[in-house]
Amino acid sequence: MGAALFGFSKLYGEVPGAQAELLRVPQAQFMPIKVPQGPPDERFLFLSDVLPTAWQSVQYAATPEGGTLLVLGLGPIGDMACRIALHQGLRVIGVDRVPERLARVSGRGAEVIDLSAVDDVGEEVRSLTQGRGADAVIDAVGMEAHGSPVAEMGQKLFNVLPKRLSAAIMDKAGLDRMSAIYTAIDAVRRGGTVSLIGVYGGQSDPMPMLTMFDKQLQFRMGQANIKRWVDDIMPLLVDDADPLGTEQFATHQVSLADAPAAYENFQKKQDGTIKVVFKP
Ligand SMILES: NC(=O)c1ccc[n+]([C@@H]2O[C@H](COP(=O)([O-])OP(=O)(O)OC[C@H]3O[C@@H](n4cnc5c(N)ncnc54)[C@H](O)[C@@H]3O)[C@@H](O)[C@H]2O)c1
User: Fold this and answer.
1) Closest by alpha carbon to 202, among 142, 152, 162?
2) pLDDT at residue 158 tops 70
3) Which of 134-138, 149-153, 186-190, 275-279 bottoms out in mean pLDDT, i.e. has the lowest?
4) Is the terminal CB of the chain with fewer CB neighbours within 10 Å at N or C?
5) Could you please report the per-residue DSSP string of 41-97?
6) Between 14 and 69, whose confidence is greater?
7) The whole model's pTM is what?
8) For a pocket test of ligand 1, which of 71, 95, 188, 199 has the largest count of ligand atoms closer than 8 A to its C-beta?
9) Which band of pLDDT confidence, cut at 50, 70 and 90, is reported for residue 220?
10) Which atom of ligand 1 lies at the shortest distance from residue 143's CA?
11) Are residues 44 and 110 in the same domain?
């Protein structure tokens, strides 16, 4: 792999997780980003992950001017992708099933589809787009998609396997939950683009190649190239109007002592937890 990611085991450079008291940072000279004096720190905090990741997903989606972008998954990444696309003047439809995530995105001007209230997201999107489908779709869900009970069992098994074994399975067998990708392929219009920012790990996932070929789809994906986008994003962060709402993006600010409870709330999507900032 070209990159090393903290906490991604053998799959990405074998560097341990970064949520620790002490941390060795390989290639540390590359990481710092110089930010201007003045605006509050909260504006720049998300340059480390959420902002460039969401930015890349919108870039890769390459929605034509005046077009419709469908965003699957409204966690921090999908939420920020919606904000960026709305700021660019696109029509945005967001999909999730967590009420406060849907509310946050619709509050900023996106249309939303509640996954738990519709039978078929693709049909719903076509009905909103004169039968065409979305011009582009961002999959900001990844392997944690809801909707595939078989994969859910597989993932539970994966979690209890010894690390060495589970990495091999992750790499080769593909325990992926593919429902968000399938929705993306269905809901995108003929000739449209699918931008995968949610992480998929397996090597042998069955894909609907006939439909993908027939619809002439373009797929773009990858780990976020953080540094690539910083200069493009910076003007929005120093803008007094804070057009992406970065200052209020975190839903919770807590001390490190409260971290265990915050993690639990985040994992269970309780207490409106979307993004937590720890203040040591
Ligand atoms: N490519 C990168 O560099 C990069 C960087 C950061 C995060 N990510 C990935 O992006 C993805 C999203 O990250 P996040 O922090 O926003 O995660 P998250 O888990 O908070 O959000 C995912 C959302 O998807 C929703 N969801 C689940 N199944 C769905 C479905 N079938 N259709 C629509 N929505 C569905 C969930 O309810 C949840 O709100 C993850 O896979 C994460 O690993 C990638």
Assistant:
1) 142
2) no
3) 149-153
4) C
5) THHHHGGGTHHHHHHHHHHHH-PPTT-EEEEE--SHHHHHHHHHHHHTT-EEEEEES
6) 69
7) 0.89
8) 199
9) very high
10) 41
11) yes
Q: Are both 91 and 189 inside the same structural domain?
A: yes
- Which residue is closest in CA terms to ligand 1's atom 27? 145
Pocket of ligand 1 (CB under 6 A): 49, 53, 72-78, 95-98, 101, 115, 140-142, 144-147, 179-180, 197-199, 223-224
Both tokens of 19, joined, read 């949520």
Same domain, residue pair 231 and 266 = no
Residue 11 tokens read as: 């799959």
CA–centroid distance for 216 within its chain: 24
- Provide the CATH number for the domain around residue 60: 3.40.50.720
The structural domain count of the chain equals 3
> Which ligand 1 atom sits closest to the C-alpha of 179?
31
Q: State the distance from the centre of ligand 1 to the C-alpha of 110, rounded, in angstroms.
A: 18
Within this chain, do residues 6 and 142 fall inside the same structural domain, yes or no? no
- Closest ligand 1 atom to the C-alpha of 121? 32
**DSSP designation for 15:** B
pLDDT of residue 162: 53
Residue nearest to atom 9 of ligand 1 (CA): 198
Which domain does 87 fall in, by range? 39-249
Q: Whose CA is nearest to atom 34 of ligand 1?
A: 73
Does residue 11 have a pLDDT over 90? no
pLDDT at 243: 97
In this structure, are 233 and 257 located in the same domain?
no
Minimum-distance ligand 1 atom for the alpha carbon of 221: 1
For residues 166 and 276, membership in a common domain is answered with no
Calculate how far, in angstroms, residue 79's C-alpha sits from the geometric centre of ligand 1: 10
Same-domain check for residues 21 and 66: no
Residue 214: left (phi > 0), alpha (psi -120 to 50), or beta? alpha
Which of the given ranges, 4-18, 73-87, 171-185, 207-221, has the highest pLDDT on average?
73-87
Averaged confidence pLDDT in the chain: 88
